[in-house]
Design brief:
globular, binds N-(5'-phosphopyridoxyl)-D-alanine, pyridoxal phosphate, D-amino Acid Aminotransferase, Chain A, domain 2, D-amino Acid Aminotransferase, Chain A, domain 1, 2 domains, 9-stranded mixed sheet, EC 2.6.1.42, 4-amino-4-deoxychorismate lyase activity, 280 residues, branched-chain-amino-acid transaminase activity, 15 strands, alpha+beta
Length: 280
Amino acid sequence: RTVYINGDFVPESEAKISIFDRGFLFADAVYEVMAVLNGRLLENAGHIARLERSCRELKLRLPVTAAALEAIQNKLIAVNQLREGAIYLQLSRGSTGDREFDFPQAEVEPTLLLFTQARPVIDNVKARTGIRVVTVEDIRWHRRDIKTVGLLAPCLAKEYAHSQGADDAFLVEDGFITEGSSSNAWIVTEQGTLVTRQLSTDILHGITRRSLLALAARHGIPFEERPFSVEEVYRAGEAFISSATSFIWPVVEIDGKPIGGGKPGRVTLALRNIYVEMAL
Ligand code: PDD
């Protein structure tokens, strides 16, 4: 792969960062993941707007304009001949050549890097079969609306899920689901209403989540933005997760109990089809 780092397009083996980079030492960095379909970026403006917001919240300087960023993304897609998959983008506060907690006083060059990931999005097996999840306590920090690279809690949640023979985890706080480990969480009630948690600092403001709500409104699918409990998921007619990399994956089992008879739900698959149509 050819990757991008601080102004240069280089083979991945030649991309280097300092051992003092604050992204590496403190997870002092933000990121974005954008889907690529048919060699085109999906919902890129939304992702860049969220990146700019993450930067503002952390007083991080984005060293390029949104237009320059998009040019970098499109060049990476072209040189790597990426048809389907994702672009990963990370921006860290850079390095002062030592380990100091305080933000650098002097102007420091941030570290901006991007790379491509080829993987099936449309014809993904998990979209067809669905995934099994287990609930696990949400031990993340309290600013989940900022997309930082401090992702050890989600890594632990996924590792726990795999140790239990499941595919992923639903994170739980005070008896209510916050999110999936790297996705927004949804249920469909027995009455056919979509439910997903409302926006706050408790969750990442998913770009896919926002589009799905807009599409639901346009297609007359009722929805509610509110917290839902673990018990509500046990009783739900359907459940699914949303993210840039999955779009929608049905959830067919939670804590060993089948949801909707253990098969991807009707509303879930309909919504996925509507989203895919929009994306193509
Ligand atoms: N994760 N919630 C969390 C905690 C996430 O990490 C993600 C995305 C989402 C969905 O957001 P969006 O629809 O904008 O992708 C929600 C990315 C894909 C990742 O970390 O790889």
